[in-house]
Design a protein that fits this description.
The structure holds two protein chains of two kinds. By secondary structure, chain A is mainly α. Chain A has a domain at 1-106. Chain A has helices at 2-22, 31-41, 47-59, 64-106, 111-143, 145-161, 166-179, 184-189. Chain A is flat, with a radius of gyration of 22 Å. Chain A starts with a helix and ends with a helix. Chain B is mainly α. Chain B has a domain at 2-111. Helices cover 83% and strands 0% of the residues of chain B. Chain B has eight helices and no strands. Chain B has helices at 2-16, 24-35, 41-53, 58-93, 95-100, 105-136, 139-155, 160-174. Chain B is globular and about 55 Å long. Chain B starts with a helix and ends with a helix. Classes of the chains: A mainly alpha, B mainly alpha. At the A-B interface, helix 1, helix 3, helix 4, helix 5 and helix 6 of A face helix 1, helix 2, helix 3, helix 4 and helix 5 of B.
Chain lengths: 190, 176
């Protein structure tokens, strides 16, 4: 019994370590890797269950790449399994971040290292512009560009001109989306 | 207390961050740079650049590093805990309820309604990185690096890790 649980825990740990190390491109990019390990390799879930867990995970906030490992780990080996799976996915790269940025910060006064830090800012700017465009396009497709533009402008004024914390605005929108009744005609047209 | 502030700074973005994985980035920036001032735009950009170049989820990498930078290992633990545990507990605790509502139009609407706000915050962040770049690297380097990065990322779909690496090399050689 304990040996069996130990085996399952170590299988979970190594499966999710592989997923964490190979999961380039952030959480959503890791989903196929999780499916590969969990459904195909270890058969902890079948395809339908996996799709359900993914759909449920998407109804909740927070990173998908920790909710899925946490839930799957819990199903396979209880609380310990949950912890093993989550730690395996996130810990190696947190340590890498701390180590690499620690070295970087330490030698910040060296001119060429400072130059490296400066050169990365325009790259991050382009990545952020890309994300802006991506979110804008998704928003435009779902809500239309007029509604999207009005919502974005109003939010911009509230957050950056009036200094209201974005949490209030987004929290308010989430509550409204959840509580406001849906009109049947609109649903059918979507 | 610093651990409580770190908890809140990561709990709030992760509990309202609907609309896709990267949605939390501008929300985290609003807390870490805007509200608490733990980092400047430059350091946040460096953290984000490395975070984008490494595998595994961006939210936990940002939380782990910012937490560690602000308050050591305990800080990293508080920030990562706030990122992972609340939504995971909801998932484990309310699975049946969530299962019934997984295709609900209201749930879909949540992501849809939040997206324009996130897009606005991302645009603002883009702008702040641009002005940071102009301040520190100067406009010639900013335009040059930005243009090459845009072509590589959008036209040739180069992996972000290689683009970041190329910028690091360029910066080490020409910006020192």
């Amino acid at each position: 019994m304990t040996a069996d649980k130990g085996t399952r825990l170590s299988a979970l740990f190594w499966a999710f370590t592989r997923i964490g190390l190979l999961g380039f491109g952030g959480g959503p990019a890791m989903i196929p890797l999780i499916q590969q390990e969990v459904v195909k390799r270890h058969a902890w879930l079948d395809d339908d269950e996996f799709a359900d867990i993914l759909a449920i995970g998407n109804t909740l906030p927070g990173p998908i790449a920790t909710k899925m490992p946490g839930y799957i780990g819990y199903r396979v080996a209880g609380i310990a399994g949950c912890a093993a799976a989550v730690i395996a996915v996130i810990l190696p790269m947190i340590l890498a971040m701390v180590a690499l940025l620690g070295i970087f910060t330490r030698y910040q006064d060296v001119a060429w290292i400072r130059g490296m830090g400066q050169a990365v800012v325009p790259v991050v700017m382009v990545m952020m512009a890309q994300l802006t465009l991506d979110f804008w396009n998704k928003s435009r497709l779902a809500l239309g560009w007029i509604v999207s533009l009005i919502m974005a402008s109003v939010a911009g004024v509230l957050i950056y001109v009036l200094g209201i914390h974005p949490g209030w605005i987004i929290g308010g929108l989430l509550a409204a989306a959840l509580l406001r009744p849906t009109s049947p005609g609109k649903e059918a047209s979507r | 207390m610093i651990y409580w502030e770190l908890f809140l700074a990561f709990f709030i973005p992760n509990i309202i961050g609907y609309g896709g994985g990267p949605a939390i980035i501008p929300l985290i920036e609003a807390e870490v740079v805007g509200r608490y001032g733990w980092m400047g735009a430059q350091q946040f950009a460096e953290t984000l650049a490395l975070g984008n170049a490494l595998p595994s989820p961006i939210a936990t990498k940002m939380a782990g590093y910012v937490g560690y930078d602000v308050a050591g290992a305990g800080g990293a633990l508080a920030a990562v805990f706030a990122t992972v545990v609340p939504s995971l507990l909801l998932m484990l605790g309310a699975l049946g309820l969530l299962y019934r509502h997984r295709d609900s139009p209201r749930v879909k609407r949540m992501s849809q309604w939040v997206r324009p706000v996130i897009a606005m915050m991302m645009a603002w962040l883009t702008w702040s990185f641009l002005s940071e770049g102009l301040d520190s690297a100067g406009w010639v380097h900013t335009v040059l690096i930005g243009a090459v990065a845009a072509i590589a990322l959008m036209r040739f779909r180069t992996h972000p890790a290689f683009v970041v690496l190329a910028a690091l090399i360029y910066g080490g050689l020409f910006l020192g």
